Protein 1
Amino acid sequence: MDRRGVVNGNSHAHPKRAAILYLLTLMGLCLVMVTPESRAADLFIETSRSAFERIPVVVFPFQTKQSSGSLGFSPADVLRADLERSQLFRIEKVNGVEELDGASPKSAFIQRVSGSGVHVSIWGVLERRGQEFVLDARLYEGEAGRKVLRKVYTGSETVVRAMIHRLANMIIQRYTGQTGIAGTQIAFVAEDDHGKQLYVMDYDGYRPRAITKSRTLNLFPDCSPGKKFLAYTSYQDENPDIYVMDLTSGQVRNLVAFEGANITPDWSPDSNTLAFASSFDGDSEIYTVHAGDGTRLRQLTFSPASDFSPTWAPSGAEIAFSSDRGGSLQIYVMDADGSNVRRLTFEGGYNTAPAWSPDGRWIAYTCRNTKGVLKICRVSPDGRQPIQVTDAAGDHESPSWSPDGRHIVFSSASRGRSDIYTVHYDGVGLERLTSGNSRASSPTWSPWN
Amino acid sequence: MNTHSVRKMVELSVCVLVLSIIFGVAGCSKKPLRTGSPDALVGGSSTGSGSDHMASGSSPAQMMSADGTRALGYTEALGYGDPGSGHVGVDGQIHETEFEIMERDGGGATGGLGGTSLAIESGRLVPGGHGAADERIFIHSADAAGGVQGSTPGMISVPGFEENGMQASSPHGAQGRATNFLVGDAERGNITSSSLGSQIAGSGLPLEASGLSSREGETIVITPHSPSTGGDAGVGSDGSTGLRSLGGTRGSKGSKSFGSGISGSEPEHVSESLIVAQAQPNVLVRMSDEVANAEVPAIASAATETFFVQAPFEDVYFDYDRWAIPKPMQDRLSDHAQWLKAHPNAEVVIEGHCDVRGSREYNMVLGEKRARSVKSFLLDLGVTEDQVSLISFGKERLTCLDTDASCHQKNRRAHLGLR
């Protein structure tokens, strides 16, 4: 949803909201200019952009009934993390809130909380009823703390977190007009005793589950825009070839199997075409094939250097890629038919693995800083405003955008470890999603649907 | 069916036929038939998440059986899909019901930031600024006394109102306050007011039918994931995948033999060992250096007829971010070329590897360049092209995980392995 539209559409009817939205719009503009800062942290820590006034929120502890507490997480904490992670809300800590311990907050208390400058407060009940879980959530807003909304979500135990994510998205939508990313997934590569497998986890790092089990390497996953397929490189036939997994049925089909390295698949925005790099001709070039059957092979680059890591613009009209044709590894952009190639990055001697944001505004990529360490950078598709996004320790690589274009997932490696992290695109809110010895890498963020 | 598959059918057993159907349809069959896995037994790293592994067998046949294609049959943990995406592969359903707290026009309806944006005018719904445009909204005027009670089996759950917020926000006071039921179905999109009415009526609530109005629905349905769907058909049993990966083709190649026995090079430089045990026909065990040295005697003695071929291959090391063969490595590679020329039936796979620095994608390309550079060096010295194939592992199979210079050097290598 276009934020400007929201402002125009409501400014007369709701002066207060209009003021806030105006603020949000202003702050959105500021985002572009804010110098990125990041906090090296293993855990999610509260960070805020200096220019961004978040919406203050109180989340009362949820009441949990009838062994719903055995889920192993606090629903209020999941909701708080979702709202905090959006970088749009600020979780307020108010005396007496935690002491409620799930009890229904009294009207007077809500009013007191609301009177202290909190715009929204949320309370809910999570209850188990047989095989089903019922999440009953209420929103209170305004200085009087009026109850304005009540939503009930019902589902099985496996979707309780998803229910809370839905609640978070509803709140984000309601107060900002934006579509929340809570409830999206991230696919990635992790090692097990047998090889490297593809995994999928929730966007907050919970519920990782393997989707391949093989004694080989599976690499470079990319999710189709319709979220129906996952393209990836696998060595299952003793060569790095490109496969497509139907996420509905689990069926896998081989799409590209040229001799040589067939790597870095990337779906076109209409899901019809897959761009990839192959070295079957002697050096790595960018090709496209029809994503349905692997036919209609088309070569897009013809450089004697190495061209790889294609990424489609959301318009489908252009493709950015990585090439060392200029003597150093840089990002280039070409039209989708391979014409009109121009160099995008000029700063630094090592820029690779571009990822075009779904809103088209940025291209994130792996850059190398002056100390020879890999970080995540981003640049406008016109080549302006190249900027380093991440600054924490370790080698950061393989950036991928959240569907709202406001968050980046990447891998960070140091001393034999590798984990998946997310960060807001202006560098705040660094969060580690994986842990353990599985050396997680190559994340790709799922689209909304 | 292409020639690729036909060859497999001739060489392998029926189970392989199943696989070649799967792989053969790919249509990109310009590559040579690739069989055998250099590291099938001990490949990959030893670290792991420890989750969801297939059980590892103890015999070679069982261990092989889990190779590669097993992924085809695996859907159990598929959980990919957003709640509401409608795909199989998600976990379950969420039903979502919204109760909008009503406020009359002009009755303090601003409600603060993002306040309720619905109001009733002459019994019609005025949609406000939030929520999807395609929501179906049912408005229902119910008596305030009991609120809405009970739940509706299989559709919506409507717990009772019990606390203060409702009362406080209702401009109607205790008399006939209005309650919104925002119910619908994003997938089916066709819940009618009457069906809702009957459901509510079924729960014993008073219903004022004339007050119903609607937009598109909002209950979110998540299609449940069926853990057993797909996959297994056509993949074959564990045994068959095992035969596929190292059976027939490998066995016949093994029985051809390279014939020269142990080459006599220094033990620590033995790079690859092949063991064919007649006691287990069609099973060729390929082992890495460490395992080979430890396990060879036991396996060899267990077999009635055993032959044992070693190739004197040593890894070729490269300079940082380079793929040209360094001078000191050229002599080593020349020796390997002589050996390959002396054993024209031997086939070698050149693996290109990189150190951990640099991006994953770039290192795949760099590893490929290194392997190509070794291949062309060997071909220049008279090795036939049929004997040599190559594969890049980028930085995906590090031999050393430290970050010091010597570790980097160990990883920047081309590894030659017999096929």
Protein 2
Amino acid sequence: MAVVFEKTRGLAEKPFHYCPGCTHGIIHRLVAESLDELNLIDDAIGVAPVGCAVFAYDYFNCDMQEAAHGRAPATATGIKRVHPKSAVFTYQGDGDLASIGAAEIVHAAMRGEKITTIFVNNAIYGMTGGQMAPTTLVGQKATTAPYGRDENHAGMPLRISEMLATIPKAVFVERVSVHDVKHIIQAKKAIKKAFQTQMEGKGFSLVEVVSTCPTNWGKTPIEALKWLQENMIPYYPLGNFRNTEEVK
Amino acid sequence: MAKELWKGNEAVAEAAIKAGCRFFFGYPITPQNEIPEYMAMKMPQIDGCFLQAESEVAAINMVYGAAGAGARVMTSSSSPGISLKQEGITYIAGAELPCVIVNMVRGGPGLGSIQPAQSDYFQACKGGGHGDYRLIVLAPASVQEAVDLVQEAFDIADQYRNPVMILGDGMMGQMMEPVEFKEVKKRSLPEKTWATVGTKGKRKPNVVNSLYIDAADCHNHNVDLFKKYAEIEKNEVRVDTYNVENAEIVFVAYGTTARIVKNAINSLAKEGIKAGLIRPVTLWPYPYKAIEEAAEKASVKAFMSVEMSMGQMVEDVKLGANGKKPVYFYGKAGGAFPTPKGIAEEAKKILGGAK
């Protein structure tokens, strides 16, 4: 009997701990498939964040390091400088990357660090129980913004991809979503492209994946996907912001 | 090899390179800037990597990544910068990664001063970051000793998979002294089978990590760490003594302060007062036994801890003396340092006036 689909070699055997309806599982699979299909997995070294994806080090079938909160790009810098031929990636959430790790991601991009960052943006702190993130939308409720985010008090949500795309050595920056099959396919293309960009030695690459958090958004998985399309994507438009073809 | 005149900071950097360190991540801060500057000049010539990080926080996390990837790696800083590195240092200790951290201490607290101090004893030896962990802390008293200890520090770090701190001070970093780069005895070291170098499809993934989410697992991890620390305490204590035999007063001092104390001892000797020195070379593990043995000598009437601080190591001297003899403190802080005269006068006061 012909095999039509099987779990990628890029993933380990451990079952995911993620909540029902969370898109981390899909994103893990896309990253693992991309590394496997590009024949990078055996040399790859990944860096897990602090946040919901903290256990990512158990899920990818490659060597992994667990970084301090927000410091994954610095940790990955240390790794890549030692192993310049390996595919080195960070997998980070929005609290980790856009808040406490804002300096580390900006400077890794500035140096054109030849690493790939998978940035999962679900507009909230998931692991700690639904606190406001720099990416939380205006009016969106969080446990530390119980009346909804007030832009006069907490400012406006940070658009990381747009910001990083202004940095010359951030040579591949794209925002994708995984709310339906079409977008999942597009997301995988972007992730593969990001890793290819890294391996070609062109500079820093990042894929921002707009994601859901049904548990902390207080929604069913289906409601969460709908809310993502109606609220997240208008503020965080999908598309490519930097592409190697434009880089001289 | 003939002796050459070297500035402390540059000698430390060269010693690290001679020990096989090929990765250095740092951030500018006075009075240790010659270390990153030397590395920036030398590393590209020897296929190594110097990288100026955006902050001390980033630098120490780059060290974490490089150490986890199996490299010999070093960072350096001075007191306020070490405070920032403490986050990464506890992760490095927790994940059991080998690295060398140089601290050329300056006056504190806060921005303090840029002059030499020893007020980082607590943050070096008593857990500067969170959790139960130990750094191996080496305290050289001369540029020559700094060069010897830096080279050995990499082997010690690799042997125990533990961060090692070289605790110097602004004086050590800035002064020039004759140095001979000797061939340091190499230890037999275990292979880094735990490092993240890529599985090559031939083994299960290695994970560099300090997270043990289950409390029992985390407890057991701590127990294992402390078994290792007990081993280090057994094997690695180093102490230097001077004129302790028949001494009435025993000074305890480390680093550059110990050299000032020697001058005080010699001037006291001219007045017929017998004084000695215990100089811890390892601040952790601490040479408690040397203090205890001195405390048991009939000739010894008192100890005096002399420090460029308001009194930090004095707590360990008290633990060593264990109430058998009184322990006094004399020190200057914030970049000021004790003088031989000041030390000698204080000693005479303790011994009941000039003879």
Protein 3
Amino acid sequence: MAYEKAYVKWYHKHNQRILVTYLMIAATLIIAPQLMFPYDPQSSSMPLALSAYIVSALNLLMALLIPLYQFRYLFNKHSVDLFYPLPMKKTTVYWLNYGIGATLVCVPNVIFFINVLWEQASYAYIPYYLLMMTGLVLFALSLYALVTFFVMKCNSLWDACFAAAAVLISQLLIVSAVNGLLRNAVTELVNNGGSAYEFFSLSYFEGAQPVMAGFQWISASLNAFFHISQSGGNFLTLWLQESTLNAWMLIYYLLLLIGFSDWACKTYVKRKGEDSEQQTTSKFIFPLFISLITGSLLAYNITDIAYLCFTFVLFFLMNALAERKLVIKTKMIAVLAIYGISLL
Amino acid sequence: MIEFQHVYKFLGKKQVLQDVNVTIPDGAVFGLIGENGAGKSTFLRLLSGIYQCDGGKILLDQEPIYDNQRCKKQILFISDEPFQFFRSSLSDMKQFYSQWYDIDEERYHEYLTMFHLDEHKPLHNFSKGMKRQAFILLGLAASPRYLLLDEAFDGLDPMMRRYFKQVIAERIADKSMSVIISSHDLKEVQDFCDSFAMIENGTVSTSGEMNDTLANIHHIQMAFHEEVKAEWFNQLDVITMQIRSRVVKLYVRGDEEKIRSYLKTLHPLVLELLPVQLEEMFIQSVIHQKEVNCHGI
């Protein structure tokens, strides 16, 4: 236990400046709407609503960046030479860095909650805010766990940055692609067009993406607050009516958080000291994300030539990043052809 | 005591170490020598727990070292290019190391004065040699049971080498530390180390006590009244042989008396047995290995 305390103490001392800067920026961004917009009983939810969306955006950003910051020592041979020989078990080092990172991800949520407590008008709704915060923290931490897992699979900082960005982008692209495919199906079936949302309930699918869940969650919570403040009623009933993210989805995110945290730990323990000197070869990074991103882009739209050219160029650039050189292989052409044919 | 038992290590697809068997006793200065890319740094990284061996065992007092908190507490590794945190000073790095190792403050300040280092100056402003001095100083102040130094003396000026050798000798004398040094400076290794291992092509070709090993290798120069034939020396453990007409130069392994008495039976005109330095032994060993690889013997 002494070494663990020593590590946390050293971490705090070594990162003091950056931690204070982070706190100040987060607090400024979250509290700013309260200061910029005067309190108005008719629209009192607006400043806090804006703060809630800012918190959700910060959660997203921190969930992507903090794993890169916490585990950056894995990507440099010299820092590996410093950290790996330390007399601590690998699992301990992992959970210490992971736990500190998770605490940092929660910081905007804590600031927001303190801000809520400061607003006298919100006192009546504290339990509901707590429910909202619980959801936001859960989504942020599950995204953090997901990104941490992919970062553990990388051998260089560039690859880890690509993986973090790809986790974000691929979720958005997959939703767009599913939307696009279903819209085309609807157009085919109905002849006079229509939105996929008229025929399919996509909100559960969207809600299952950690990137989008937070914004959906806030939107539902704020609508429920608004209805209560205008016409009263039971918050939970109203909230469940507004939100498709019910208890089952919360359990899904909890499982995501626990599962990926544990898997990331196992991946960390299996990492070798020499990995920082090798190329990233895990199938979970470039093969997976290049397939997801390219497939989603093609599924969204396969008829526009300019769009197709953009997709092919992006495909080759991602492969160039993976191979560390610009190369066109027969395998790549074959993969693209298979995507195209299957979608057509 | 540290033991390497049938250790294998691959880096990617390349086999860097194969069937390495070495014992490093306590209270010794152990030298690790070899060509560039022989596997010296890999050896030290395996010992410090950075790498895990792909085969065999690396034991400290009969316990495996990898991911073993108790063993790693007794080992401190200073690499050839030590890592420092962004804009950190020697004092900051000392604070980091003091979380895990017991740094003797009195010794630390004594060495600071001896080596004329400013502990508050950012390390990125130090020269390469000064940076090395700074980290060796930290290692010595931490006094782990095993201090691993990767090419520690390379880049230090002669005065600094003298100081470090003096300090290390004091620590060894009070039996509180063993030092394992890898170096290209074979004169320093011979002068300073009491045992060594030579790594060639991923294997330990020679190891043991410095004086005993060198005493077991002989540089022989002979002249004959007729053309020399290589098969005359088949009974000897020849490392390398150079024949020029009636003159032969040999590096041979074995007991001096037995070698001398055998060579006398060949009736040479001139027979000289000369002492061998570590550098000579290393060069001849490398030449021999290259000949073996070339001719597939």
